[in-house]
Inverse folding.
C-alpha cells in the first residue's frame, strides 16, 4: 500500500519539521498576511476580528485533537476511519450520561470516558478490522467503519432520542485576551487539547512503544519480522485514536449541544484538516486544525449560518487542486 | 501487426467458447425482470406499490454506484452529490422553465456526469485512489449540501416543491395517486440502468475499467489509458444516479437539501450494492430488494410494536441500525455479498 | 536465421537515478528489426528497471528512447504499448476477476473494438500458446507454467513489433522449459523482435543472437553470446559462480 510509505515518512520522528520546514512557515505566513488584510481592509470592527481569531484558535485546538486521532489511524493502519465523528458523539454521550445520572463532574467523567473509549477502539480494531487491514483491503475497513458510524449514531438515537441535551458546566467565568472574551471552559479545552497532542507526539517519538508504532507504519511486514506484534500495535493505535476523540469530547462537552448527529460534521472536518495538513502527519493535523478553526470563525464574520463551513470546503478544493499532498505530506 | 494468423489453424467459427453465454443469460434475465416489473403493479395494492417505488429508487442508485465503485473500483462515499444534482436540476428546470421531467432528467444526468467527471479527475490526477478518493467524494457531497442550504435560487433550507398540475400527463410525469405509471416509470429506468450495466461490463471500455481495477500497472502495459477509462465509468455512474434523484423529486413533488445531499443518501447508494455483491450485475438489485422492504417493515413494526418489543414504541433509528449491522456482517463474513457469493458457489459446482 | 535489418529500437544514454542509487547507468543499444537480444546480469543489475523505462512505466532521468523512428522518451506506458512495444512481468500480473480468455481479450480489444472479433482473436492467441484447455479457467486456479503463458499470450495479443520478456522461464520446471523455448523460437521466426531477460543460461544461449550483460546498472558487455560469455570480465563479474 503506497499510502503507508508516505504516511510513515511524515509520522516518523523529525522529518516533517526538518525536511519540510518551509511549508509550515509558508502556511503561517499566509495566515498572518490574511489576518492582517482582514484587519486593514476587512471592513469589520477590529474588536470583532480579534474575538474571531481567539475563538477560531480555541476551536482549532479541539479540531486538531480530533484530527490527530484520524491521521494516526490513517498513518499506521491505512484506514480512513469513517466512524471518527460518531466516536466523538459516543464519547460526548458517555460524559453526558456520567454527569447527569451519576453526578460526576464533567472533567472527571472525561477521565473515565478516555479508557472506556480506548477499550472501545481497541476492540473495534481487534474484532472488526484486523483481518481486513492485515489483508491490505482498503474498501473493507472503509465499509466497516461506515457501518459502525451508522450503528453508533442510530443506537444513540434510539437510547437518547433526537432532542438536543447539554452537559452541566462546572467552571464559570471568562478571561479577556487582547480585548476578546474567552470562557474558561473553552480555554481549558484548548490547552487540554494541546497538552494531549504534545504528550502524544512525545509518546510517538520517545518511547519504545512509539517506535513500534512507527515501525509498523513504515513497514508492517518488516516490523513483524523483528518481533513487533503488528495486530496489537494496530489495535493500540485505533485505541489511541479513540482516546484522542474521547478527550476532545470531554473537553468540549460543557459548551456543546448534544444530538446523535453532532459528531457527523467532525468526520468531514477532520478529513479536510488531515488532507490540508498532509495524510498521516501529526504536526500537519495540528496546523490544519488551527487554520480550519480560524477559517470558520473569521468566515462567520462575512457569511451567515452554515456559509462559513462552505469556506472550509473552498480551502479543501484549493488544496486538492494545488497541493494534494497537503502542507506536510509527501507527494505520492 | 504481422505474425500469427496465416500459418496457424484458426479457431473454428463455431467453437463453443466463442459464444458469450453470460451476455445472453444476463439479457434473458433482464427480459424476465422487465416482464415481472410490468405485471407487478397490476396485482399488488397501493401500499406495496409505494414500497416498490422506494425499492426501485434504491436499486437504480445502487446500480449507478456499482458502475464506478464496483466495476471501476473507485469507491464513492458521496453519491448523494450526483443524486442531489439530478434531483435539484430536475426540480429547478420543471419549476422555472416548465420543462418536461423527461428532458429535465436527461439534462440533470448530463450535468451530474460532468461534475462527477471533474471531481474524479481532480482526485485521480495524483493517483489519490482508495480511501482518499472515498472521503474526497464524501466531502464534495457535504459541500453540495451546504451549497443547497445557502443558495437563494434553490430556496435554501426550504427546498423546492414541484407544481401539481391537476391533470394526468405522461409528458409531465404526473398521474392520479396510485396510478401504475408511478411504478412503471422507475421500473423502466431500472431496466435501462441494468441494461447499460450488462452491455458496459462486456464492452471494451467496461472490460478496460475492470482490468484497471484488478491491476493498474498491467492494464497500462496493455495499452489502456487508465485515467480515461475510469472517467468513462464515473460518467455513466453519475448519470444513472442522477436519474434516480430526478425521479425521486418527481415522485415526492419535493426536494430539499437533506433529501438530496444528506449522508444517508450516499449510504443508500452503497448499502444495496454491498449487500447484494459489489461489482456484480444483479447485486445492487438483490440488495435493494432486501433493504427497501426491510426499512419499511421496521418502520411499520415501530409504529405498532408487539408487546415484547414495546420499549421500541416511537423510537427512531432502528431501521438504519439494522442495515448497519447487516453491512458489517456482510463485509466480514460474505465479502462478495449475497448474490456474488451464491454465484461463485454455483460456478464452483459447475466446474467440478 | 534472421536478416539483420535497420535499427527498430534505439536506446541512447539511458539512465535512471533514485535517491542515492543509479539503477540504470548510461545504457545505449540499437535493437535491429527481427533481432533476439538476450539480457543477463546478477539480481539488482537493473534489467527490470531498464524494461520499465523502455515500456514507459518510469521516466528516465537521462537519455532517449527512439522506437521505429519516433522519440518515445517520457511517453506513458499505455501509449508505448499501443505503439507496438509491449512488456511482460516477471511476477505474473493476471486480472484476477477475469478468466484466461477475458484476460487476453483486454489485449485484443486494443486493435479490435468489436467484442465478438476480439474474442475470436483472443482465442486464436490462446490456442497458439497452447492454453486452449484453460480458456475459461480463472487465473487463481492456474499452475505457474500456464500463468507464464497467459502473460505471454496477453502481450502477443497486442500484435507487438517488439516484445520485452521478463523471465518467462523462471519458476518453470526443466520439462516445461523446452516447449516454452520452442514457442519463443517460433514467434521470433515469424518476425517478432524480442528483448529477453533470463537467468537460465542454456535458454539464453539457445535463443539470443546478441547478448547484453548488465552489472550494477551499467553495460558490462554486448555482443555475440558465446564470445561475451567467455569474456573474462564477464566471467569474473557475474558468470563465474552461475555458469560453471
Amino acid at each position: 500500500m503506497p499510502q503507508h510509505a508516505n504516511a510513515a515518512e511524515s509520522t516518523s520522528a523529525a522529518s516533517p519539521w526538518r525536511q519540510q520546514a518551509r511549508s509550515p512557515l509558508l502556511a503561517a505566513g499566509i495566515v498572518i498576511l490574511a489576518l492582517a488584510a482582514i484587519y486593514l481592509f476587512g471592513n469589520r470592527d477590529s474588536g470583532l476580528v480579534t474575538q474571531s481569531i481567539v475563538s477560531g484558535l480555541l476551536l482549532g485546538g479541539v479540531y486538531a485533537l480530533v484530527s490527530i486521532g484520524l491521521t494516526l489511524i490513517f498513518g499506521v493502519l491505512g484506514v480512513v476511519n469513517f466512524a471518527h465523528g460518531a466516536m466523538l458523539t459516543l464519547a460526548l454521550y458517555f460524559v453526558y450520561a456520567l454527569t447527569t445520572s451519576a453526578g460526576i463532574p464533567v472533567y472527571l467523567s472525561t477521565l473515565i470516558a478516555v479508557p472506556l473509549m480506548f477499550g472501545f477502539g481497541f476492540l473495534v480494531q481487534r474484532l472488526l478490522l484486523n483481518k481486513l487491514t492485515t489483508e491490505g483491503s482498503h474498501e473493507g475497513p472503509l465499509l466497516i467503519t461506515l457501518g459502525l458510524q451508522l450503528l453508533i449514531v442510530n443506537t444513540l438515537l434510539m437510547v437518547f432520542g433526537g432532542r438536543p441535551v447539554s452537559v452541566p458546566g462546572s467552571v464559570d467565568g471568562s478571561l479577556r485576551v487582547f480585548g476578546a472574551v474567552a470562557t474558561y471552559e473553552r480555554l481549558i479545552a484548548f490547552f487540554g487539547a494541546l497538552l494531549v497532542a504534545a504528550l502524544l507526539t512525545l509518546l510517538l517519538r520517545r518511547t519504545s512503544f512509539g517506535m513500534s508504532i512507527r515501525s509498523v507504519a513504515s513497514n508492517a511486514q518488516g516490523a513483524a519480522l523483528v518481533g513487533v506484534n503488528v495486530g496489537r500495535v494496530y489495535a493500540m493505535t485505533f485505541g489511541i485514536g479513540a482516546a484522542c476523540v474521547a478527550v476532545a469530547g470531554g473537553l468540549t462537552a460543557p459548551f456543546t449541544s448534544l444530538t446523535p448527529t453532532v459528531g457527523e460534521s467532525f468526520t468531514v472536518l477532520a478529513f479536510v484538516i488531515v488532507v490540508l495538513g498532509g495524510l498521516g502527519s501529526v504536526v500537519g493535523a495540528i496546523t490544519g486544525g488551527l487554520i480550519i478553526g480560524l477559517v470558520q470563525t473569521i468566515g462567520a464574520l462575512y457569511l451567515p449560518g452554515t456559509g462559513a463551513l462552505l469556506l472550509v470546503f473552498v480551502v479543501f478544493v484549493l488544496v486538492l487542486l494545488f497541493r494534494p499532498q497537503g502542507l506536510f505530506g509527501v507527494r505520492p | 501487426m504481422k505474425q500469427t494468423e496465416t500459418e496457424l489453424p484458426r479457431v473454428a467459427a463455431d467453437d463453443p467458447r466463442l459464444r458469450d453465454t453470460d451476455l445472453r443469460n444476463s439479457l434473458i434475465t433482464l427480459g424476465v425482470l422487465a416482464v415481472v416489473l410490468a405485471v407487478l403493479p397490476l396485482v399488488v395494492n397501493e401500499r406495496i406499490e409505494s414500497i416498490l417505488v422506494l425499492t426501485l429508487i434504491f436499486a437504480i442508485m445502487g446500480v449507478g454506484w456499482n458502475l464506478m465503485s464496483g466495476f471501476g473500483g473507485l469507491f464513492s462515499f458521496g453519491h448523494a452529490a450526483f443524486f442531489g444534482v439530478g434531483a435539484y436540476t430536475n426540480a429547478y428546470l420543471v419549476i422555472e422553465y416548465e420543462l418536461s421531467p423527461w428532458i429535465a432528467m436527461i439534462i440533470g444526468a448530463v450535468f451530474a456526469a460532468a461534475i462527477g467527471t471533474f471531481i474524479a479527475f481532480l482526485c485521480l490526477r495524483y493517483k489519490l485512489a482508495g480511501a482518499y478518493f472515498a472521503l474526497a467524494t464524501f466531502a464534495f457531497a457535504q459541500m453540495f449540501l451546504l451549497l443547497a442550504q445557502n443558495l437563494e435560487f434553490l430556496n435554501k433550507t426550504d427546498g423546492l416543491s414541484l407544481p401539481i398540475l391537476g391533470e394526468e400527463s405522461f409528458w409531465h410525469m404526473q398521474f392520479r395517486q396510485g396510478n401504475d405509471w408511478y411504478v412503471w416509470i422507475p421500473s423502466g429506468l431500472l431496466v435501462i440502468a441494468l441494461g447499460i450495466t450488462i452491455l458496459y461490463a462486456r464492452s471494451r471500455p467496461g472490460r478496460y475499467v475492470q482490468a484497471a481495477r484488478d491491476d493498474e500497472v498491467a492494464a497500462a502495459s496493455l495499452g489502456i489509458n487508465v485515467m480515461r477509462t475510469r472517467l468513462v465509468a464515473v460518467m455513466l455512474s453519475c448519470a444513472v444516479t442522477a436519474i434516480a434523484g430526478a425521479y425521486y423529486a418527481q415522485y415526492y413533488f419535493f426536494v430539499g437539501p437533506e433529501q438530496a445531499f444528506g449522508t444517508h443518501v450516499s449510504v443508500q447508494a452503497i448499502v444495496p450494492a454491498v449487500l447484494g455483491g459489489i461489482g456484480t450485475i444483479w447485486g445492487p438489485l438483490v440488495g435493494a430488494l432486501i433493504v427497501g422492504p426491510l426499512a419499511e417493515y421496521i418502520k411499520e413494526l415501530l409504529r405498532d410494536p408487539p408487546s415484547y418489543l414495546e420499549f421500541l414504541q416511537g423510537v427512531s433509528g432502528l431501521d438504519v441500525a439494522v442495515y448497519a449491522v447487516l453491512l458489517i456482517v456482510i463485509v466480514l463474513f460474505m465479502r462478495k455479498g449475497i448474490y456474488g457469493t451464491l454465484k461463485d458457489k454455483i460456478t464452483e459446482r459447475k466446474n467440478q | 536465421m534472421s536478416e539483420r535489418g535497420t535499427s527498430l529500437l534505439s536506446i541512447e544514454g539511458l539512465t535512471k537515478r533514485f535517491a542515492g542509487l543509479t539503477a540504470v547507468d548510461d545504457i545505449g543499444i540499437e535493437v535491429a528489426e527481427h533481432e533476439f537480444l538476450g539480457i543477463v546480469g546478477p539480481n539488482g543489475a537493473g534489467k527490470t528497471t531498464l524494461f520499465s523505462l523502455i515500456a514507459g512505466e518510469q521516466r528516465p532521468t537521462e537519455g532517449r528512447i527512439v522506437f521505429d523512428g519516433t522519440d518515445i522518451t517520457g511517453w506513458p506506458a499505455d501509449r508505448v504499448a499501443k505503439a507496438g512495444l509491449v512488456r511482460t512481468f516477471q511476477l505474473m500480473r493476471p486480472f484476477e476477476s477475469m478468466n484466461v480468455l477475458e484476460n487476453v481479450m483486454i489485449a485484443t480489444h486494443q486493435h479490435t473494438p468489436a467484442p465478438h472479433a476480439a474474442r475470436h482473436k483472443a482465442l486464436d492467441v490462446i490456442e497458439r500458446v497452447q492454453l486452449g484447455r484453460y480458456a475459461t479457467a480463472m487465473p487463481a486456479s492456474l499452475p505457474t507454467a500456464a500463468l507464464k503463458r497467459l502473460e505471454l499470450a496477453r502481450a502477443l495479443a497486442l500484435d507487438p513489433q517488439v516484445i520485452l520478456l521478463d523471465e518467462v522461464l523462471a519458476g518453470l520446471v526443466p520439462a516445461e522449459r523446452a516447449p516454452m523455448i520452442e514457442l519463443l523460437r517460433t514467434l521470433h521466426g515469424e518476425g517478432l523482435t524480442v528483448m529477453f531477460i533470463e537467468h537460465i543460461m542454456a535458454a539464453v544461449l539457445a535463443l539470443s543472437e546478441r547478448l547484453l550483460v548488465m552489472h550494477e546498472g551499467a553495460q558490462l558487455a554486448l555482443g555475440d553470446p558465446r564470445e561475451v560469455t567467455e569474456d573474462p570480465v564477464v566471467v569474473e563479474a557475474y558468470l563465474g559462480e552461475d555458469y560453471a
Observations:
- The domain at 7-92+160-243 of chain C is CATH 3.40.50.300 (Rossmann fold).
